[in-house]
Amino acid sequence: MKTYLPKNSLEARKWHVINAEGAVLGRMAVQIADTLRGKNKPIYTPHLDAGDFVVVINAEKVVLTGKKEDAKLFMSYSGWKGGEKYTSVAQVRAKHPERLITHAVKGMLPKNRLGDQLLTKLKVYKGAAHPHQAQQPAVVAPSN
């Protein structure tokens, strides 16, 4: 008995556009991560990249439930003593709203080279415009 391995061709991959306006961040991130990995396809293989490209628009209009807008903090460390910096969700949304979605999706992907490769297929944009019209992406509504 032989194991079927899907062909790894970029031509067979589809492009999906997800509008983040009014969508809950965590629920949308799960949908994005599953599409990037290819879990929505019958040819899903855990150790191969069988997923599609995802374009997220209106990243600044994503919704966080509860008190996460004020209470949730992102930490970065410079490597020096006392080099910890904490940033709230509101501050991140004001400067770089794309990072909210990227950070949430990155946490749901594998922590290895495959996860890094999958994350390159995620394109997040602040407004409604995106430069990927030539790929003829399919518009997908996020499920809440």
CATH superfamily: Ribosomal protein L13
Distance between the terminal alpha carbons, to the nearest Å?
Answer: 41 Å
CATH topology: Ribosomal Protein L13p, Chain: A
> So, CATH architecture?
Alpha-Beta Complex
Give the DSSP E fraction (strand runs of 2 or more residues): 15-25%
Helix content: 25-40%
Keywords:
144 residues, Ribosomal Protein L13p, Chain: A, four-stranded parallel β-sheet, two-stranded antiparallel sheet, 6 strands
Secondary structure: elements and pairs:
Elements: E1 15-19, H1 25-37, E2 53-57, H2 68-71, E3 73-77, E4 84-88, H3 89-95, H4 98-106, H5 113-119, E5 122-124, E6 138-140
Parallel strand pairs: 1-2, 1-6, 2-5
Antiparallel strand pairs: 3-4
Structural account:
It is a single chain. The protein has 144 residues and is of the alpha/beta class. It has a single domain, classed as Alpha-Beta Complex (Ribosomal Protein L13p, Chain: A). It is 28% helix and 18% strand. It contains 5 helices and 6 strands. The chain has helices at residues 25-37, 68-71, 89-95, 98-106, 113-119, and strands at residues 15-19, 53-57, 73-77, 84-88, 122-124, 138-140. The strands form 2 sheets. Strands 5-2-1-6 form a 4-stranded parallel sheet, with helices on one face. Strand 3 (73-77) and strand 4 form a beta hairpin. Helix 1 (25-37) packs across helix 4 (98-106). The chain is globular, with a radius of gyration of 17 Å. It starts with 14 loop residues before the first strand and ends with a strand. The mean pLDDT is 93.
